[in-house]
Write a structure and sequence with these properties.
The protein is mainly alpha-helical. The protein contains 35 helices and no strands. It has a domain of about 180 residues. It comes from Kitasatospora saccharophila.
């Protein structure tokens, strides 16, 4: 369990521990909703909640209580929908896009996200604006791509209009449908996003920060004089190389640039000519050739030539995607290609594991799972819709990356793979731990000696741990000490002694050795002391 910073109130650790105790049922948890129990409210997001308690908390008059519950990743679809109708927009936003939403083992119900995006539900107050809500929901990982695909075909025009923001990544049919939408506002937004705006000298002069100029060079249509000036000055050439709106002369010039970093960017430019492709296929830099090998418009002859490249990575990338190529398949292979990391923002490396917005058919993924080509098996492992036989096949793959990708993407990945992925992918740990299949018992004893405290914490919490719990109670990391104090292998007398320990009392209060009757007795004392520390007016009952 997570160890918060040391609180000012001496009763706060015990309250948090009681909230985390698996024996704390509805009767105990409801008592924590009193103003004196406020230090325990954040803990309500870190454990599954009884359904009847969630019903009570969702209707609580204090926003901080509802916000804490809204961040719980184990809420039922019905509870999510009720919170999406909360009288305070901030609570609704926390439900569909807060810290708990990306951790959910199951997708957020569409109806809840739609309510928040549309902004049509009446609210009593708004601590955030509807524009801020939409901005938050466009951030990577906030809304799943499967929902964004459905937005593009939604019967509500406002949702189709908002889907236009992702039009460049949409499947071609969805992109075309938005550009020709029967609603004029949707059509206008689609064309605003899809059609480039021309960069003006005034706009460029006002861009006083280098990153602002970089962005403008990357996305705007540059008039000939400004483009010529940038090429001559060699200003932000890597940004220009990523600009999809370059004229043919500039494409040829940058594709032959002496800087290999520029050629690497240009190797995926959508306007490369056959001549430039042929030149890049013979480039002395293997990274340039590797990038070109994944170009969606590569000719069959160049695919064959690059599949025979002396560099194994280049050859593998070309062979994995034979002609005729489809952009969705090319994107899936890119996402599985470790060599792309330095050139492509791989969301998986930042804790986001989602299917592509433009995803191949599941049948293609199933075929890839049986391929002798490693890249294709890695691509297959990133599909969350694989059937059980295919999951079993990939779970036994000899390649570590295949197994990790399967664990990160597929809701039916086996427990052993979830644990392995937890060890190797720190950014995904909270989400992996929220999975129902994540293993918590019978863990390898060696985890208790791991360098990473988050891993030692798993061992300390294992109720079948056969090592030295007393050593873990003295671990240098408090989160490990708290997990050990909550381990039910400790005897009742040891747990009782730890309750009085200022450092370990929180963990002891979470220990299942304490039954519901003992938790009520503990609360009697703790809430009484908490009441004594409350200010005479205001305090935890407010909305702060």
């Amino acid at each position: 369990m997570t160890a918060p910073a040391a609180p000012a109130e001496p009763h706060a650790p015990l309250l948090r521990g009681i909230a985390a105790n698996p024996n704390a049922g509805t009767a105990v948890l409801v008592r924590l909703l009193a103003p004196e129990g406020a230090p325990a409210w954040p803990a309500l997001r870190r454990r599954p909640l009884p359904a009847d308690f969630a019903d009570t908390a969702i209707g609580h008059p204090v926003r901080r209580v509802r916000s804490a519950v809204a961040a719980n990743p184990w809420l039922s679809d019905d509870h999510c929908l009720r919170l999406a109708r909360d009288p305070e927009l901030l609570v609704a936003l926390q439900t569909v896009a807060g810290s708990g939403a990306p951790l959910r083992p199951t997708p957020m119900p569409d109806a809840a996200v739609e309510l928040v995006l549309l902004g049509t539900w009446p609210r009593e107050s708004k601590l955030v604006t509807q524009d801020e809500v939409r901005s938050e929901l466009t951030a990577p990982g906030r809304v799943r791509n499967a929902f964004r695909r459905r937005m593009a075909r939604h019967p509500e025009p406002e949702l189709r209009r908002q889907a236009c923001l992702f039009i460049d990544w949409m499947p071609p049919a969805d992109r075309a449908a938005l550009l020709d939408d029967p609603d004029p506002d949707v059509r206008a937004e689609a064309r605003r996003v899809a059609v480039p705006r021309q960069l003006t000298p005034e706009e460029l002069a006002a861009a006083d920060l280098p990153r602002t100029r970089y962005h403008l060079y990357q996305v705007r249509l540059l008039p000939p004089d400004l483009l010529a000036e940038a090429l001559t000055a060699r200003e932000h050439l890597d940004a220009l190389a990523g600009n999809r709106h370059l004229p043919p002369d500039a494409v040829r010039t940058l594709a032959a640039d002496p800087d290999p970093d520029v050629r690497r960017r240009m190797a995926r430019h959508p306007a490369l000519t056959p001549e430039s492709m042929a030149a890049l296929a013979a480039d002395p830099d293997p990274v340039v050739r590797h990038r070109l090998a994944g170009h969606p418009d590569l000719t069959p002859a160049l695919i064959d030539a690059l599949a025979a490249d002396p560099d194994p990575g280049v050859a593998a990338r070309a062979a994995a995607d034979p002609a005729p190529r489809e952009r969705a398949r090319t994107g899936a292979i890119d996402g599985a290609d470790l060599r792309e990391r330095s050139h492509q923002f791989r969301l998986i490396d930042f804790g986001i594991a989602d299917e592509l917005l433009d995803a191949p058919d599941p049948a293609w993924y199933r075929a890839c799972a049986r391929s002798p080509l490693l890249l294709l098996r890695r691509a297959a492992a990133s599909c969350p819709h694989l059937d059980e036989p295919t999951v079993r096949l990939l779970a036994g793959d000899e390649d570590e990356e295949v197994r990790d990708l399967l664990a990160l993407h597929h809701p039916g990945a086996p427990a052993a793979l979830l644990l392995d992925a937890h060890l190797r992918h720190p950014h995904h740990r909270d989400r992996l731990r929220a999975r129902p299949a994540f293993p918590r018992t019978g863990l390898p004893s060696g985890l208790a000696r791991h360098d990473d405290p988050e891993v030692r914490e798993l061992a300390a919490a294992d109720p079948e741990f056969e090592g030295d719990l007393e050593a873990l109670l003295a671990d240098p990391e408090r989160r490990v000490r708290l997990a050990a104090a909550a381990n039910p292998r400790l005897g009742p007398d040891r747990v009782a002694a730890l309750l009085a320990d200022s450092d370990l009392g929180e963990g002891a209060a979470a220990n299942p050795q304490l039954g519901e009757e003992r938790l009520h007795a503990l609360l009697d004392g703790v809430l009484g002391r908490a009441a004594a520390h409350r200010p005479a007016a205001g305090g935890a009952s407010g909305e702060g």
